[in-house]
Design brief:
Distance between the termini: 37 Å
Largest sheet: 5 strands, mixed
Number of helices: 17
Order of helices and strands: EHHHEHHHHEEHEHEEHHHHHHHH
Number of domains: 2
Strand order of the largest sheet: 3-4-7-5-6
Shape: globular
Length: 331
């Protein structure tokens, strides 16, 4: 599975590129402003790879990851970041980062391993379309935030990156205050084992419990195959009642209708198929909520209840009334 990447990981690149170069950046990565504004939107690993490459090209900065790490504001990575900040120790924070990473990027797999007196935050599975500088940024931020929040001084043992150096290595050695190796056998950040036990000054047990429940729910509901189709479905859920077809949805995503159809075709679906699936999902939910047939028909954007009846029978083989009776009988 190729996986996908949250737009939360793309937004720091938008800030680095700047408004003057933004159109070129968006065009190269096949992105739009509305997509980047959607907190739940995700991009393909290929788009993420191109986004990094284009950001480096447009800024002319081969060490862009370090520049982004300096400028990135607190909270940029949403609940995943905050649940880590609320953890009691550095080790617990890193374990939570590993646990919830898929909410940000499920195209890669990261692990926290301990071997003797050393601990390793290691990339176990690389993306099918690698964005090496994204690992530089991740490690740079982990080092930065760990030093800020750890109650005990933190001294890294080393940084090992499997990709080639983008230029010189002096800036990386200065940032990490540790040996940095490019072209290494693995991509990993190496800590003293004892550092994992360091308390975090930002620890908040009450907040951690709340955030963990929320993160677990997001983890459970993470879509198996997110993409443009999922963005279309979200837009439709908010506008089915006023449904006028593909044009308004495409505008919300910053696309033309033709471009949206092309992207959906690339994902093996169509606007009609996504709309039917969204209506079917909401119809079952509304039936369970005991809404009347007329109300459901209106909310789903059907011209009249009879049209909803026919569509529901086509989807399920049952009429809405029969489906409700069966659900009630099985309750």
């Amino acid at each position: 599975m190729a996986g996908s990447v949250s737009v939360l990981l793309v937004r720091p690149l938008v800030l680095a590129v700047g408004s003057a170069r933004l159109p070129a950046f968006l065009g190269a990565a096949d992105l739009t402003g509305p997509m980047l504004a959607d907190d739940d939107a995700r991009v393909t690993p290929a788009q993420f790879c191109v986004a990094w490459s284009e950001a480096v090209r447009l800024t002319g900065d081969p060490e862009l990851a370090l520049a982004v790490a300096r400028a990135i504001p607190t909270g940029s990575f949403g609940i995943v970041e905050y649940v880590c900040r609320a953890a009691p120790t550095l080790g617990d924070a890193l374990r939570r980062w590993v646990r919830y990473l898929n909410l940000l990027d499920d195209a890669v797999e990261v692990a926290l391993a301990v071997d003797g007196d050393r601990a390793y935050l290691r990339v176990e599975r690389e993306s099918e379309a690698p964005a090496p500088a994204s690992h530089e940024l991740c490690f740079a931020l982990v080092a930065k935030v760990a030093r800020e929040l750890s109650a005990a001084p933190l001294r890294l043992i080393g940084v090992e990156l499997a990709h080639r150096a983008p230029g010189g290595t002096a800036a990386y050695r200065a940032w990490f205050d540790a040996p940095v190796t490019f072209g290494a056998a693995a991509t990993q950040l190496v800590f003293p084992r004892a550092a994992l036990d360091a308390a975090l000054v930002s620890s908040d047990p009450g907040l951690l419990a709340i955030l963990t429940r929320a993160a677990d729910e997001l983890h459970r509901r993470a879509p198996a195959d997110p993409g443009v189709a999922s963005q279309v479905a979200r837009a439709l859920r908010e506008s089915l009642r006023d449904d006028d077809g593909i044009e308004p949805v495409a505008r919300r995503l910053g696309l033309t209708a033709r471009s949206l159809q092309r992207r959906l075709k690339d994902e093996g679906t169509s606007f009609q198929a996504v709309r039917d699936a969204t209506r079917r999902e909401l119809a079952r939910r509304y039936l369970d909520d005991r809404l009347s047939i007329a109300e459901i028909s209106f909310l789903l954007g059907f011209s009249e209840p009879s049209a909803f009846f026919r569509a529901f029978k086509r989807w399920t083989g049952l009429t809405p009334i029969e489906a409700r009776r069966r659900a009630t009988a099985g309750a």
